[in-house]
Amino acid sequence: MVRRAASDNGESRPTTIRDVAAHAGVSVATVSRILSGTYPSAPATRARVLRAVRELDYVANANARGLAGAKGRSVGIIVNSVVSPHYAYVAQGVQAQAAFEGKLCIVGTTGGDPERELATVQLMREEHAQCVILVGNVVADDAYRQRIAEYARALALAGSQLVLCGRPPLGPDVPALVVEYDNTGGAHAITSHLLSAGHRRILFLGRRDGYSTQDSRIAGYRKALADHHVPHDPGLELEGSMERREGHRMITERLAAGPPDFTAVFACNDLIAAGARQALREHGLRVPDDTSLVGFDDLPPSPDIDLTTVHVPHEELGRTAVRMALERVRTKSQTAEHVMLGTHIVIRDSVRPLIRTEPPTIA
Q1: Which of 119, 153, 222, 361 has the fewest C-beta atoms lying within 10 Å of its C-beta?
Q2: Tens-digit pLDDT profile for residues 247-275
Q3: CA–CA separation, 293 vs 250, rounded Å?
Q4: For the CA atoms of the chain, what is the radius of gyration?
Q5: Whole-number pLDDT of residue 53
Q6: Considering only CA atoms, which of 263, 309, 256, 253 is closest in space to residue 286?
Q7: Would you list the DSSP string of 86-131?
Q8: Best mean pLDDT range from 30-34, 53-57, 175-179, 186-190
Q9: 123, 179, 180: which is closest to 155 by C-alpha?
Q10: What does residue 265 show for φ and ψ, rounded to 5 degrees?
Q11: DSSP H or E run through 74
Q12: What are phi and psi of 298, to 5 degrees?
């Protein structure tokens, strides 16, 4: 509860910064600078001011705080949605590192709308966020590249840093930091795991041409087939978005067209895998006894359904984005930089090796 001070006519009023200054025995300017984090005060003075703030239960006015110079106190992260586990875990990493660095974390959502993304970037620029982190799958066409390059240059002029998190780089002329993870390598590894278990008919769920994440993962899938000398069958690649219901739809439609012509399923993420698993069970197919199943991300619900998948370092992705961006702001670097984090397979119980029986020996 906010403490009320007495006014000249005896009525109560909200505590002001002047009350804090009087209580601490310092000037209003000293209180303002200490609260904004820009004043190199003596420890005893700072302690007196903070004690006065607590004792008076003072809450700074947001507009006045902005005018007093909140510059450099925040980092921003912009995601499509906070419901998706992928975005939520990256945002958690951003928040954790921001707190470690003594920064506030501002989160914006766009629903995938470029206009909302632009408006949110502009807002964070006006709020003097030290870095703005864009997360998520994109269609990396010319319009996207031009738009993001403009973001990067506008933020650089304001002394801020654009970070593309889990997105492809834009080239050396764009002052953006790219922090991503090895989608192609992870997809190659998980496909190779299935191939090593004897599977040759591997259904890929979630092809979506032009989208950066799906394109990278299907590239790894195709490369693994080539490396193991398994013919590529485009008919085993099913198109769909990265949602649970899409996994259910793709498998349901495939099985409605005829009996299974695959022995394993590679779902483009764990949500698709969960939907696919439900559809397989509804058609009387057990995982892994009848059909092997793998995913990508290592996020809920993968541990609950015992899913073999590719681990993505989501929280480390967010932490690295903040840590490197703030370092670049401190050094005033505006060169492009690209960091790639590794992925690895998490083995659970959703893959069954195929049993190859030898032909009978004729005596």
Answers
A1: 361
A2: 999 999 999 999 999 999 999 999 999 99
A3: 14
A4: 27
A5: 80
A6: 263
A7: HHHHHHHHHHHHHHHTT-EEEEEE-TT-HHHHHHHHHHHHHTT-SE
A8: 186-190
A9: 123
A10: -130, 130
A11: strand 74-79
A12: 60, 50
> Which residue is listed with tokens 């590719």?
310
Which alpha helices (H) appear in the chain, and where do they start and end? Answer: 17-24, 28-36, 43-56, 62-69, 85-100, 114-126, 142-157, 183-196, 212-227, 244-256, 270-282, 314-331
Tokens of 209: 């041409």
Angle at 359 between CA 356 and CA 360, to 5 degrees: 130
Q: How many CB atoms lie within 10 A of CB 265?
A: 30
Q: Which of 144, 148, 143 is nearest to 132 (CA)?
A: 148
- C-alpha 124/C-alpha 158 separation (Å) is 11
pTM score of the predicted model = 0.77
Sign of the torsion formed by the C-alpha atoms of 139, 141, 143 and 149: positive
Distance of CA 118 to the CA centre of its chain: 18
Beta pairing class for 309-311 and 344-346: antiparallel
Per-residue tokens: 33: 């600078």
Is there a contact between 181 and 340 (Cβ–Cβ < 8 Å)? yes
C-alpha to C-alpha distance for 4 and 12, rounded to whole angstroms: 5
- Return the structure tokens found at 230: 């398994």
Cα separation values, 202 from 205, 215, 221, 275, Å: 10, 17, 9, 17
Contact 104, 74 (CB under 8 A): yes
pLDDT in tens, 69-113: 445 689 999 999 888 899 999 999 999 999 999 999 999 999 888
- Rounded Cα distance between 178 and 78, Å, is 15
Distance in angstroms (rounded) separating the CA atoms of residues 30 and 22 = 11
Question: Are the CB atoms for 128 and 69 separated by under 8 Å?
Answer: no
Structure tokens at 77: 């992260």
Q: Give the whole-angstrom CA distance, residue 21 versus residue 48.
A: 10
Those residues with Cβ within 8 angstroms of residue 112's Cβ, 6 or more apart along the chain or in another chain: 80
**Cα(237)–Cα(218) distance, integer angstroms:** 9
- Rounded Cα distance between 242 and 112, Å, is 13
